[in-house]
Amino acid sequence: MNKRNIAFLMARARGLRIAFPLTLLFLLIEFFDELHYGVQGAAFPYIKNDLGLTYAQAGILLGLPGLLGSIFEPLIMLAGDTSLRKSLVILGGSSLVGVVILLGMAQTFPVALFAMTISFLASGAFVTLSQATLMDLNPSREPQMMARWTLTGSMGNLAGPLLVAAVFTQGLSWRVSYWILAVPAFTLTLLLLTSRFPPRQQRLVDRVHPGEAEAPSSLLIGLWQAVRNTHLMRWLILLNFSDLLLDVFLSYSALYFSDVVGLAPTQVAFMMSALMAAGLLANILLIPILEKVDGRRLVRLTAWIVGVGYAAWLLTPWVWSKIVLALALRLSTLGWYEVLQGEAYAALPGRSGTVMAINSITGLLDSALVWMVGWVAGQIGLQGAMWLLLAGPLSLILFIPARRQPDLKHVVQ
C-alpha cells in the first residue's frame, strides 16, 4: 500500500469520525467483539472437524487462551492507566485484523491455537480498554453506560451465528466468516487511529508524586493499594458471586434441562435460545429503568425476587413451571452485571485500567465457583449442586450497601 492510499484512508477515517462519536465507536467495538464470539461458537464444530482435532485438543483450544489471558491481561490493563492506552487499543485492534485472517487460513492445530491465544490477548487491549475509556467518558453514569454496552454486545452475540448461517447458505466455508470479520476490525481500528482519546484524569497519585504516575513501580504500588481498597474489592467480589445466576446458570442450564428435567436435545436447544432472547429483552428494558431507579436499589430488590424464584425453580416438579421460572429468572437478573461493574469503576475514578486489572485477577474466583458446582454435582448430583448458585442473590442481599458514599473517600490514599 503506497503513501497516497494510506493518506486517502486516513482522510476517509477522519470524515467518518464526525459521524461516529467516541462513545458510539466504543459500543461498536463491543458489538464486534460479541459478533466475533458468536461466530466462534457457531463455527467451532466445523473448525474441529476441518482441522481434525481431538476432544482434548478442542478443550485446549477453548481453555488455554483464557488461562494465558488471566496471566497477561492484568499487565495490559495496568499499562492502560498510562498515556499508552490509545496505542494499546489500536495495537489490539490491528492484531485482531491479522488474527481473524490467520484463523481463517489455519490448517493445523498449532496455528489455530496461536491465533486464538493472540485473539484473546488482543481483545483485552481492544475491547476491555475501550470499555474502561467509555466509563472515564461518563463519570457518575457508569451503570447506565454498562447497560448500553451489554445491550450492544447481546445484539452482536445474536448476529454471530446468523453470519455463519448466511455464509453456509451460500455454500461457503466457515473460514469466510472469519475473513468477513477482518473488515469491521480494520474499519474500527482505522477510526480509532484518527480519534482523540480523553486526556488521563488527574489522579491522586499524580498530585502526591508528580511525574511518577506512569513509572512501573508506581503502577504496581497503585495496584497493591487498590487491592487493599475494601470498597472496590466489595464490588468486584460481588460481581463474581452475581455471575452464579448469570453465566454459571446459563452454563449448566442445558445440562440441567437435559439430565434432570429430561428434555430432548432439540427442546434443550430451543430452551437455550429462549433464555438468550430473555437476556436480550432484559438488556433492552434496563436502559430506561436505570434512568429512573437507583442501580443499587434495583439489584437489592431483584436479588430478593431471584432468590425466592430460584428456590421455587429447583423445588417445582413440573416441567412447564421450570421453563417459565427459568425465563423469569433470566429477566429478573437485569442490571446485576451492569450495576456492579459500574460501581467498581466508580470506586476508583480515573483508574479504570487498574480496576480491570484487578477484575482479571478476581476472575479466578469465578472460575473456581464454576468448578465447584461441577465437582459437587459429581458427588451428589446436579440437582443438589445447583443449590450452590443461591449464594449469588444471597450475597447481593447481604453485602450491597443501601447508601452511596462519596467516591473520593475511596480513592487510594
What does this entry show, briefly?
The protein has 413 residues and is mostly helical. The protein has helices at 3-19, 22-51, 55-79, 85-105, 109-137, 142-169, 174-193, 204-208, 216-227, 230-242, 247-260, 265-292, 295-315, 319-332, 336-347, 352-380, 382-385, 391-399. The longest helix is centred in the first third of the chain and has 30 residues, at 22-51.
Describe the protein in words.
With 413 residues, this protein is an all-alpha fold. It folds into 2 domains: 3-195, Growth Hormone, Chain: A; 226-400, Up-down Bundle (Growth Hormone, Chain: A). The protein has 18 helices and no strands. Helix 10 runs antiparallel to helix 18. The longest helix has 30 residues, at 22-51. The radius of gyration is 22 Å and the shape is globular. 39% of the residues are buried.
Descriptive keywords:
413 residues; mainly alpha; Growth Hormone, Chain: A; 0% strand; globular
Q: SSE layout and pairings?
A:
Elements: H1 3-19, H2 22-51, H3 55-79, H4 85-105, H5 109-137, H6 142-169, H7 174-193, H8 204-208, H9 216-227, H10 230-242, H11 247-260, H12 265-292, H13 295-315, H14 319-332, H15 336-347, H16 352-380, H17 382-385, H18 391-399
Helix pairs in contact: 1-7, 2-5, 2-6, 2-7, 3-5, 3-16, 4-5, 4-7, 5-6, 6-12, 6-15, 9-16, 10-15, 10-16, 10-18, 11-12, 12-14, 13-14, 13-18
